[in-house]
Design brief:
CATH superfamily: Bira Bifunctional Protein, Domain 2
Radius of gyration: 16 Å
CATH architecture: 2-Layer Sandwich
Number of strands: 10
Strand order of the largest sheet: 1-5-6-10-9-8-7
Length: 185
């Protein structure tokens, strides 16, 4: 999935402020495993990865005008487990950082589609999804959904933000989707 992108290894423990500021305000606090560290700083286990790329984009770019990154990260959500929605999950992702969010959006969408197509997975694309994460420009992103999964049918979610664009794939949900369509890898 790297498509010429650099791998980034993301830490599981991070500051709560990043996610409150970048990923939906105080509403996301309800979804985070949040706690103070021994010095009283507000920490959390990362609930998703895109906010980290937004906050640290200058460090990731390291003087370059634009760059592509991919990651595989363990993420954590404080919510009731249900079919296709877990408290701990693996997120595969791609982030295209740079000055042109529109071009980054098109690249991200094409790579996400290409990845699912290469697996032979049938999906529905919503190219103007209204999502809960406030960092997407205009509050809109894209989703790739597998109807066989029922209520938790989103397999890929992404969109453009001020610093670029990207997408995330829930690995466990992708495995459920492949199984639901009888696709063996």
């Amino acid at each position: 999935m790297d498509a010429g992108a650099e791998e980034v290894i993301l830490p599981a423990l991070w500051s709560q402020d990043t996610f409150v500021a970048k990923a939906g305000g105080s509403e996301i606090l309800e979804q985070m495993w949040a706690f103070p560290d021994r010095k009283g700083r507000a920490c959390c286990l990362i609930p998703e990865a895109t906010a980290l790329f937004q906050e640290r984009n200058k460090e990731f770019l390291n003087g370059r005008r634009s760059a592509d990154f991919f990651y595989i990260a363990r993420c954590y959500r404080y919510e009731r487990p249900q079919a296709g929605r877990y408290r701990e999950f693996t997120q595969l992702g791609f982030e295209c950082l740079g000055p042109d969010p529109s071009a980054a959006f098109e690249r991200s969408l094409a790579l996400g589609r290409g990845f699912l197509d290469s697996l032979g997975l049938r999906y529905e694309l919503d190219g103007a999804a209204r999502r809960g994460l406030s960092y997407y420009l205009g509050g809109e992103g894209f989703e790739m959904r597998v109807p066989e999964l029922g209520a938790q049918k989103q397999v890929v979610g992404g969109g453009a933000y001020r610093e670029g664009a990207g997408f995330g794939i829930g690995l466990e949900r992708l495995a459920l989707a492949l199984d639901a369509q009888g696709i063996a890898l």
